[in-house]
From TrEMBL:
InterPro entries: Cyt/Met_Dipeptidase (IPR051458), Peptidase_M20 (IPR002933), Peptidase_M20_dimer (IPR011650). GO terms for molecular function: metal ion binding; peptidase activity. Residues 212-354 form the Peptidase M20 dimerisation domain. This is Dipeptidase. It comes from Actinomyces marmotae.
Length: 462
């Protein structure tokens, strides 16, 4: 029989197996960046399909080509029917992971060998999104066992294999499998909770715009002593240009962007001292920007230079660099059109080029923001499930990061209720060294997902 207590007990009994499955998943270096071995991404997909089959779902590994004709990376598509007339639920996660970065910056010898230290399991993909991936088969298996071999609702699980490289085949995949993916409720399990032990629904996500800006000042490199003075090198010219993107307070200066200086009233308060500790801000370093701290994180635009072509120190010489390219990433507020944001950024850069340098701007990415609501039947069910599963009142939060394909899901399935849930916490360090998953939260997350699916299917009354 499916009850809150029976779900809790079943997850508690299964938890060593859940941790073992997460450890096994971390051991597969499923880095989807093209510079890495893509055979490992396929191995990861096959492993995840096996976990879902063991949970009683029909699962296959499949892919579709990207719009430019290049092959899409392998995804997992699995399904199990619930009772006739029960809600159709689509659950999304991704099995690909980020590169490890600098291996020497990890506390463990191999980032792909999971290591438990205290309450956390460390390893690349342990949280983003390995914990999300292993949650689904275990929640579904427990519901099937407690439900006498039947799930309370029809469930389709889509585990993508290229989220960390921008989901290039996502729209084509949705088009190819639209009938199989159509749902009444969509659960995107790729966000964060508010704190360890405090669950959250994400109701706001910034979008993302990315461009490459190239500065040319010379047709060839020059001796900096012989020619320096009348001509400014391209790197310094670029530094002067990107410095115009923020004012003295640290706010973005690009005109025409949507910006909300006050966050939604239902968002929790984020004390500055907590943020500084969570982010690892060094003592004495001032925070930038104006307005509410959560607004600066979730509802105002930000601009970051995430890469720049500069001569490495070991190859440096007394040379005036003739050109320099900077990769500029801009997070855009909910309600901002990505195309208009690129136009605004390009216009600002063009009007602030120092000393008549030649500027070329090339767009790389334009992903929309997400603005949802938890005040829907599915949202209220999720709040109940998270609150019950964690034993602490769930909160609504925003995220400064972007999941652009959520807008694609909304436009493809306009009648579906979209829920954005998470497994991460402020110390998860996703995409960074020493990524980890809090195991106490992992247990509570599996309980909460099982409760949510049972609630959506009417097997448990709130």
């Amino acid at each position: 029989m499916i009850t809150v207590d029976s779900i809790r007990a079943a997850v508690r009994d299964a938890f060593p197996s859940i941790v073992s499955d997460l450890t096994d998943l971390v051991a597969i270096p499923s880095v989807s960046a093209s510079s890495h071995d893509q055979a490992e991404v396929l191995r990861s997909a096959e492993h995840v399909a096996g976990l879902l089959r063991d949970a009683g779902l029909e699962a296959e590994v499949t892919s579709v080509d990207c719009p430019d004709g290049t092959p899409g990376r392998p995804a997992v598509l699995a399904h199990a029917d619930g009772p006739a007339g029960s809600p159709r639920v689509l659950i999304y996660s991704h099995h690909d992971v980020q590169p490890v970065g600098d291996p020497s910056a990890w506390q463990q010898a191999d980032p792909f060998v999971a290591e438990r230290r205290g309450d956390r399991l460390f390893g690349r993909g342990a949280s983003d999104d390995g914990a999300g991936v292993v949650t689904h088969p275990h929640a579904l298996r427990i519901l099937r066992e407690l439900g006498g071999g039947e799930l309370p609702c029809s469930v389709t699980v889509y585990i993508e294999g290229e989220e960390e490289v921008g989901s290039p085949s996502f729209e084509a995949f949705l088009a190819a499998h639209r009938d199989r993916l159509d749902a009444d409720v969509i659960i995107v399990a790729d966000s964060s909770n508010w704190r360890v032990g405090v669950p959250a629904l994400t109701t706001s996500l910034r979008g993302v715009v990315q461009v490459d800006a190239r500065i040319d000042v010379l047709d060839h490199a020059l001796h900096s002593g012989q020619y320096g003075g009348p001509v400014l090198d391209a790197v310094t010219t670029m530094c002067r240009l990107v410095a115009t993107l923020h004012d003295d307070a640290g706010d973005v200066t690009v005109p025409g962007l949507v910006s909300e200086s006050t966050a939604a009233p239902d968002f929790p308060e984020y004390p500055e001292e907590d943020f500084r500790a969570d982010a690892g801000v060094l003592p004495g370093v001032e925070l930038i920007g104006t307005g509410d701290l959560t607004a600066r994180l979730w509802t105002k635009p930000t601009i970051t230079v995430i890469g720049m072509d500069v001569t490495p120190l070991e190859r440096s010489g007394n040379v005036l660099a003739p050109s320099c390219t900077a990769r500029i990433s801009m997070r855009i507020a909910p309600g901002q059109d990505p195309g208009l944001a690129i136009e605004a950024l390009t216009s600002h850069l063009s009007s602030h080029v120092p000393f008549g340098a030649r500027l070329t701007v090339t767009g790389r990415e334009a992903g929309p923001a997400f603005h949802g609501s938890s005040d829907t039947p599915a949202g209220r069910a999720a709040h109940w499930a998270l609150t019950t599963g964690f034993g602490v009142e769930a909160v609504d939060i925003g995220q400064g990061g972007s999941i652009p394909f959520i807008a694609t899901l909304q436009s493809t399935f306009p009648d579906a209720q979209v829920l954005v849930t998470g497994v991460e916490d402020p110390d998860t360090r996703a995409h960074s060294e020493d990524e980890s998953m809090h195991l106490g939260d992992l247990e509570r997350i599996v309980v909460s997902e099982a409760l949510l699916l049972a609630r959506l299917g009417g097997a448990i009354e709130a």
